[in-house]
Structure formats: C-alpha cells, structure tokens
Amino acid sequence: MYKFLNIIWDEEKIPTQWLKGMLVKLPNKDLGLCENLRSITLLSVASKIVCRIILNRIKEAIVKFIIILKKNFGPENVNFYCALCLCSSAYEIRAPVYADVDLSKVNDAKLGDIRESIASMKSDIESLKHRQKRVSMVACLKGSTFTARGAGSMLQILAIQTIYGITPSSQYRNGIFTCKDRGLYMVFATITSHTLAMYKLIKNKTLVSRGLIGGNQHWSSGSSIAFVQLDVQDQISIVADQRMQIGDRSCFGVLKID
Description:
Helix content is about 30%, strand content about 35%. By secondary structure, it is of the alpha+beta class. It has 5 helices and 14 strands. The chain has 2 domains: about 1-130, no CATH class; about 135-255, Jelly Rolls (Sandwich), CATH 2.60.120. The strands form 4 sheets. The chain has a 5-stranded antiparallel sheet with strand order 5-3-14-8-11, with no helix packed on it. A 5-stranded antiparallel sheet has the order 6-7-12-9-10. Strands 1-2 form a two-stranded antiparallel sheet.
C-alpha cells in the first residue's frame, strides 16, 4: 500500500474508480417518511486511507491558518474550514461537489449564523491567499550599458536574475513590472552611471521615489527604495530625469511583503 501511495504522489493522479462512491440510504425510525432515511457514501478502503491522509494534512494547515488569524475556534470549526477549502479548490478546477446536508431542523436564526460563518470563512481564506502569495523579481544589466535619450525615457533593465510567482512574458516586459496580485510591495532600484544623474521610480504615472547618482567621470551608483500598495494592473517602472547612460550591475526589483 505504501509503494502504491508513493506512485500516486509522484504521478499526481488518483485511480478513477476511487473517485466514485455508492450512495446507500439507511433507515432510521419510520420507513414511511423520507426524512427518516439517512444516506452514506461507500468508498473503497484504499480511497478512504488516501482521503484520511489528505484530510490530516489539510487540518494541520488549517490550524496554522486559524492561529495566524488569531481566532478561537474549536475542532468542529476546523472541520468546517477543511470542508470549505475542499469546496473552494473543487470550484477552481470546475469539479463537482456532492453533499448531503439536513437543515430541516435548523431554525432561521441558526441558518443566518451559518451563512454568516461561511461568508466570514471565505473572506479569511481569500485574505490568507493574498498574504501567502509570494512574488519577487530582480533584474540586472549585466555586461552591457543602456542609454536613456532624455527626461522621461524608461530605463530598460531586462536580464532577470531571480523570479518567483511572476510570468515574465506578461508581467515584466520592456522594463515595466505589471502587478497581478494586489498587496504591499517593496520596490527598489540601484543604478550605476559615470555622470551626475537622477532617476525616478514611477507607479503608473505617479512618482513614488527618486534616486541620485553622484558620478564624476567615474562609475558610481545611487539607490532608491519605496513601499507601495499595488492593485491588479498597476505598473512600476524606472524613468530617467535626463539623458544618461547606465552601466553594468544596475538592478531593479520588486518584492511582495503582504
């Protein structure tokens, strides 16, 4: 069984027959009333073992999640969060989810509490997704120079050295970083030049920081850093304040911190 589970883990595929269950109605009290029939799903034993392993892993993550949110929930709430996470994942991959829930004996006030709890949990999960989504990138100018023709010219530092959570073709093109995950970002630039020059860090068309390079016929560098709140489709770029030539080891980077 252990070897078989390792194969499933490596190939990331579960046998299709494991995904099927048999619904069985169990009688409870008077068989003449439909509400007295309780349904259960019969699954293969191997499938149950895999499901239990996955559920235990999810519970560990959910407990950490609740600690992060500083919420005081009991074990029943942990199970509720697990169910909600599974439903959310199934929705993302367009997989059907079937559940047998009996709310016939729940009064209106309790139903309202349930709806409120589900809405709160969804909001918490979305918040955590954004907080845990890691985004970082550093691009450098290596072994070459770039000449900005005048004020307003964009500095194109294109050689990506480090990247995580970013699609280069759509999020970093021609020296422009385009945000796909909203949050608080640290944006930084270190520019080298052999002349006295200034440059700007620009969010969309708004100045967020300015850098000064005190070059005097020798290559020197100037750094600038800013913390900015970015929404989806916001853009960050570096713009020259004048005609300037930037040199080797000039760098531009972004890091999502929350």
